[in-house]
C-alpha cells in the first residue's frame, strides 16, 4: 500500500507534472554539481500554502543575490498549485527549488535554462518544545551568500548531525564575531529582562518568514546579542516555516524548566491565531 502511494506522488519539473520515478534533472545541473541554486520551504495546510507571497519574494531576492535570473513567478505559483492539488496532504512541506540549470563541470555557469522543481511531502506537527546545542562553527555574516537561502547546505547538515548526536533537534550558531546568529534552519528569539529579542539581519541570519511575522505581530525587537546570551536568557524559542514558534527546553546541558515560558506561550498563541485567520499575511 505504501509503495502504491509513493508511486502516485507527482512532482513539478521544468513546466510539467511527472510521477516521482520520472521526475528527474540532469546530473550536470549546476545545483547538483556545485550547489548553485536557491530554494524555499513553504508550509501547506489542507492543500493551501501559508505565506506563499512572502516566500516567493524571498526566493526572488535569493536568486538575485546569487546572480540567477528571477524565476517566473506565475510559473512558480502555478507549479505550487498543481503539486498541492495532485498530492493532497493535511500538513505538508512544499519545497521549491530553483537552480542555474545544466552547466559545465566546475563553478562557471552555462547557457542552459534554469531548473525549477516543486514537490510536497506530508510532515508531522512539530512538538511544542525542543532541545538545541551550540556548535564550534560560525556563520560568515560577510560572505557572498550571507542572508540568501541557497541549496549549498552542507555546513547545516554537519551542524544538525552534531545536534542529533546530543539528542537535540537543532544547532544554534554564532557569527564570526561571536554574536548570536541563527539555527541551521531557524531563527532564534530570547527573553532577557522581560524583553523579547532576536538578532538583526546584519548578524548574517536568514530573513525568516516566521521571524518577520513574529516581529510584526508582537513586541519583539531586534538586538545585537552575544552568543553567551543563551546561557542566561529566561526563555528561548525558535521560529521557522514548519516549527512556527517552538519553545526551547534545553540548551546543551542547561535545562529551561517549564518551557514554554509565559512570553513564549503568548507568542505561540498569537502566531497560531493570526496564521489560522490569514494564510497570506
UniProtKB/TrEMBL annotation:
PROSITE patterns: AA_TRANSFER_CLASS_4 (PS00770). The keyword Transferase applies. GO terms for biological process: amino acid biosynthetic process; carboxylic acid biosynthetic process. Keywords: Aminotransferase, Pyridoxal phosphate, Transferase. GO terms for cellular component: cytosol. PANTHER family: AMINO-ACID AMINOTRANSFERASE, AMINODEOXYCHORISMATE LYASE. This is Branched-chain amino acid aminotransferase. The lineage of its organism: Bacteria, Bacillati, Actinomycetota, Actinomycetes, Kitasatosporales.
Amino acid at each position: 500500500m505504501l509503495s502504491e502511494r509513493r508511486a502516485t506522488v507527482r512532482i513539478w519539473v521544468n513546466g510539467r507534472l511527472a510521477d516521482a520515478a520520472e521526475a528527474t534533472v540532469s546530473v550536470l545541473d549546476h545545483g547538483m554539481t556545485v550547489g548553485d541554486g536557491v530554494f524555499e520551504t513553504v508550509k501547506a495546510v489542507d492543500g493551501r500554502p501559508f505565506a506563499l507571497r512572502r516566500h516567493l519574494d524571498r526566493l526572488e531576492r535569493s536568486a538575485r543575490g546569487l546572480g540567477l535570473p528571477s524565476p517566473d513567478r506565475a510559473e512558480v505559483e502555478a507549479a505550487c498549485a498543481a503539486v498541492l492539488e495532485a498530492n493532497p496532504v493535511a500538513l505538508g512541506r512544499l519545497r521549491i527549488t530553483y537552480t542555474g540549470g545544466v552547466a559545465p563541470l566546475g563553478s562557471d555557469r552555462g547557457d542552459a535554462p534554469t531548473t525549477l522543481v516543486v514537490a510536497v511531502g506530508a510532515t508531522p506537527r512539530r512538538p511544542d518544545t525542543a532541545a538545541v546545542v551550540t556548535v564550534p562553527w560560525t556563520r560568515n555574516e560577510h560572505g557572498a551568500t550571507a542572508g540568501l537561502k541557497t541549496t549549498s547546505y552542507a555546513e547545516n547538515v554537519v551542524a544538525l548531525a552534531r545536534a542529533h548526536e546530543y539528542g537535540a533537534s537543532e544547532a544554534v550558531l554564532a557569527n564570526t564575531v561571536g554574536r548570536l546568529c541563527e539555527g541551521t534552519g531557524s531563527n532564534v528569539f530570547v527573553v532577557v529582562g522581560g524583553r523579547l529579542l532576536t538578532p538583526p539581519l546584519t548578524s548574517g541570519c536568514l530573513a525568516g518568514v516566521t521571524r518577520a511575522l513574529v516581529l510584526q505581530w508582537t513586541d519583539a525587537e531586534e538586538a545585537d546579542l552575544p552568543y553567551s546570551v543563551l546561557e542566561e536568557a529566561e526563555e528561548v524559542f525558535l521560529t521557522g516555516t514548519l516549527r512556527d514558534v517552538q519553545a526551547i527546553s534545553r540548551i546543551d546541558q542547561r535545562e529551561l524548566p517549564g518551557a514554554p515560558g509565559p512570553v513564549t506561550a503568548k507568542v505561540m498563541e498569537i502566531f497560531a491565531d493570526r496564521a489560522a485567520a490569514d494564510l497570506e499575511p
